[in-house]
Design a protein that fits this description.
mainly alpha; 310 residues; MetI-like fold
């Protein structure tokens, strides 16, 4: 009996040393380590990519605090001592225009472009998505084809038109085209979103006596909020960062935006002041960052839903 008991105990020990498939159990560190590596490897890769993407911003912030003699000569990321005078010079602005004036000019242009694009593109998209009229398909295709047209191809005709209207050296050439639905990308984005909306609410509003404009304003427009916020975010960022168009139409330094100020930032000796220029660059990024952080949830929602609607 004692031998049989010992044999049974040994068989149980041998079975416990094997896994569920009958193979020997690798022990506590056998399979857990590879599984842990596979689980944390994607997160580690994402962190590495994030650090690579954030490095230019870190370098910009560090360079804005470097003394003038270290901006181009020192290879170190961190400055030897913090030069807060760069931000003091940046707040003074250029040619009598302070940083507040430059920010206000950029804000006026950006908000005007946002208002124009949201109103005109939403109305145009509603016409293409919901209304029925002749040549709707060819006109929509022609509008989409304008997305492949380079901006420089129409720059000279537009400049001649605005020059004859006496609008050069003002904000009108930068804002007025946005009220004419000239951004085909945003029209297409909103059209794709509106095509996925249910038509029952619009039909109920028409039965109650609402016309096309009231249906658009009371029913369709509130439901299109994610696409409209996406349009507003992209328009604000693109208008704030625009340089070439503002360079063509703006001549007076008092009307310069912060983007133009960065390209013409010089010190009293007419030499490039890199420290204050990088400090002004940091200040110019802050409004875009705050605007994006405030509406990033709607940006992801609008892009996802607009891209899936056909």
């Amino acid at each position: 009996m004692s031998a049989t008991t010992q044999d049974l105990a040994g068989a149980r020990d041998l079975a416990g040393a094997r896994g569920p498939s009958g193979r020997p159990d690798p022990g506590p560190g056998g399979r857990r380590a590879p599984c842990a590596v596979r689980r944390f490897a994607p997160h580690l890769a994402i962190v590495v990519v994030l650090l690579v993407l954030l490095y230019p911003l870190v370098w910009l912030l560090a360079t804005s605090l470097k003394p003038a003699d270290e901006v181009l000569t020192s290879l170190k990321l961190l400055p030897s001592h913090l030069a807060w005078s760069n931000f003091t010079t940046a707040f003074d602005g250029i040619s009598g225009a302070s940083i507040g004036r430059l920010m206000a000019n950029s804000l006026i242009i950006s908000l005007g472009c946002v208002l124009g694009n949201v109103l005109s593109c939403s109305l145009t998209a509603y016409a293409f998505a919901r209304l029925r009229f002749r040549m709707r398909g060819p006109m929509f295709g022609f509008m989409i084809a304008t997305m492949m047209l380079p901006h420089h191809a129409v720059l000279i005709p537009q400049y001649i038109i605005f020059n004859k209207l006496g609008m050069v050296d003002s904000y009108w050439p930068l804002i007025l085209p946005k009220f004419l639905a000239t951004e085909a990308f945003f029209v297409f984005l909103i059209v794709q979103f509106m095509r996925g909306l249910p038509k029952e609410m619009e039909e109920a509003a028409r039965i109650d006596g609402c016309g096309p404009f009231r249906v658009f304003w009371l029913v369709v427009l509130p439901l299109t909020r994610p696409a409209l916020i996406t349009t507003a975010i992209f328009t604000f960022i693109w208008s704030w960062n625009d340089f070439f168009t503002q360079l063509i139409y703006l001549f007076d330094p008092s009307k310069y935006t912060i983007t133009l100020a960065l390209s013409t930032f010089v010190d009293q000796s007419s030499q490039s002041a890199y420290g204050p220029m990088f400090a002004m660059s940091v200040l110019s990024v802050l409004p875009i960052l705050l605007f994006f952080l405030a509406f990033q949830r709607y940006l992801v929602q609008g892009m996802a839903t607009s891209g899936l609607k056909g």
